[in-house]
Specification:
It is built from two helices and six strands; from the N terminus they run H-E-E-H-E-E-E-E. Strands 1-2-4-5-6-3 form a six-stranded antiparallel sheet, with helices on one face. The protein has a single domain (about 5-115), classed as Thiol Ester Dehydrase, Chain A, CATH 3.10.129. By secondary structure, the protein is of the alpha+beta class. The protein is globular.
Length: about 130
């Protein structure tokens, strides 16, 4: 499968995905100043676009399940509490639920000090 330039940039900055004892997963990412998502968002005051965080959650689910065909069908919930800035590190913790005929990803992003930065819930399909 071919990845977009943003997905490739996310992969390059992503640490390993760890499965936790409660069957959730986590991974840490650092958004260095060269992250292409900053281009134009916003000039003089760059922040990671929310769509990049959503794309990252989809990518994390693909990597955790080994299913690269997972695609976001619907954004069920999203709340960005704190912007991700150049140099920021965030830990994304997520669960994957598979009720019949769908897959639901619940994710939170937090700072190293455990400050909640975002909550994201995606309904995905393959």
């Amino acid at each position: 499968m071919s990845r977009s330039p943003i997905q490739t940039a996310l992969l390059e900055r992503l640490g390993p995905i760890t499965r936790l004892p409660d069957n959730s997963y986590q991974a840490t990412i650092t958004f260095d100043e060269k992250f292409p998502g900053f281009a134009g968002h916003f000039p003089g005051n760059p922040i990671v676009p929310g769509i990049c965080e959503i794309s990252l959650v989809e990518l994390l689910a693909q990597l955790a399940t080994g299913n690269e065909t997972l695609r976001t069908k619907r954004i069920a919930h999203v709340k960005f509490r704190t912007p991700l800035l150049p140099g920021d590190c965030a830990t994304f913790r997520f669960t994957i639920q598979t009720p019949p005929d769908t897959t639901i990803i619940h994710a939170t992003a937090s700072t190293p000090q455990n400050k909640n930065m975002a909550t994201i819930k995606l309904v995905v399909r393959d």
